[in-house]
Every structure is written in C-alpha cells, then in structure tokens.
Amino acid sequence: DGGITQSPKYLFRKEGQNVTLSCEQNLNHDAMYWYRQDPGQGLRLIYYSQIVNDFQKGDIAEGYSVSREKKESFPLTVTSAQKNPTAFYLCASSTGTSGSDEQFFGPGTRLTVL
Amino acid sequence: GQNIDQPTEMTATEGAIVQINCTYQTSGFNGLFWYQQHAGEAPTFLSYNVLDGLEEKGRFSSFLSRSKGYSYLLLKELQMKDSASYLCAAMDSNYQLIWGAGTKLIIKP
Lengths: 114, 109
Description:
The complex is a heterodimer of chains A (114) and B (109).
Chain A: E1 4-7, E2 10-13, E3 19-25, E4 31-37, E5 44-51, E6 54-57, E7 64-66, E8 76-78, E9 87-94, E10 104-105, E11 109-113
Parallel strand pairs in A: 2-11
Antiparallel strand pairs in A: 1-3, 3-8, 4-5, 4-9, 5-6, 7-8, 9-10, 9-11
Chain B: E1 3-5, E2 9-13, E3 18-25, E4 32-37, E5 44-49, E6 53-57, E7 60-65, E8 70-75, E9 84-91, E10 97-99, E11 103-108
Parallel strand pairs in B: 2-11
Antiparallel strand pairs in B: 1-3, 3-8, 4-5, 4-9, 6-7, 7-8, 9-10, 9-11
C-alpha cells in the first residue's frame, strides 16, 4: 500500500534535547512538507522540499532543521533552540507544487517536551 | 497579510444539511482546498476549487467565488462519522497553502 508513515506516534523528550521525527513516503512524490498544528490554529509550514537535496524554510523554521537525502525520506529535527516544541507534527507529500496537487498527510507525531 | 477565516465550531443534527463557510485573503490565488480531520488523525483531502462555481462529490459539495474571496463546504445527509474538523486552505501565488484554524463540526443524533 502506498502512503506516508511517521514514527513514532507519541514522543516524549526532556527540555534541552534534540529530537528527530521521521517521515517516509512510497508515493514517488517529489514534494514533501512539515507542518506544526497547535490547538485553535491553522497548520503552519515549517520546511518544505520540492526535490532531493534541496529544501526551503517555511513560516516558522526557527529551531528546526531538515534533510532530504532521499526522495522517500524527509526527517525533521526539533532542536533545543525551539522555544515551544510541544505540538502535533504532520508530514505531507504531493506530486509537485502546482495548484491542483493535493497534499497527502502522514498520521502525525505528537511531541511532548517535559 | 494573508488570512483565512472560518467558524470555530458548528453543531448539526444527523440526517440534516450543514454549510461551513470560509473567507480568504491571499497574495495571488491558485485554488481552494477543503480537508477533513478527525481528532488526533491526519487531514484527508475532500475537494479542490479553482474556478467559480459548485463542485459536487457525493454527499459533499464545495463552492467558490473568487471575486468575493469566499468558499463553502456543504455536507448533506449528515452521519455521525462526519463529526470532525474541516480545514479550509487557500493556495497563494507561490503555491503555498495558507490554512484556516478549522471548523469543528459536532453531529447530534
């Protein structure tokens, strides 16, 4: 079955620790995205990548880093510089970035920093 | 600035019809998406409109007026499983999605 996987579903970390969230897709999509979702707010774009070995900052990139070494994978690292990292993180992919390309979402990772 | 507005919460009765409105202001426009999101789960695609008018897909329909910066999602014959949040997102001139905060729809028997 084609789709996007994110692991783990729940993640707990101590303050000051870096943590990496995984995102893998087997849809052969070129574009991948990371969003953050907080209660009462719309999804906010952290980083996106339109092609392997290239990525761009979204609206709230500070305190996060990504890599895109393979087409299938787009891991997100939440660093200790992120002031308020507790949130629901969603990874998505699409065939491209033209208007009608819907984004397919993974199941999300809920990160709690203690 | 860029902005999407939609009601925070709506309540409807099983079997009825509900309309969820969305207004948008974006730098350029390349279409309007509606997604459904059940609590704690991933958003799933419902519809895409780029031209004015109504697109019907089973029990769900979506309408767009580009001149008014307005869209709505119409859900007919409501079922309990339709209880979810409905997210409106507009694509700007850079092909980036600007998301609304979502409308939580509560269905009562």
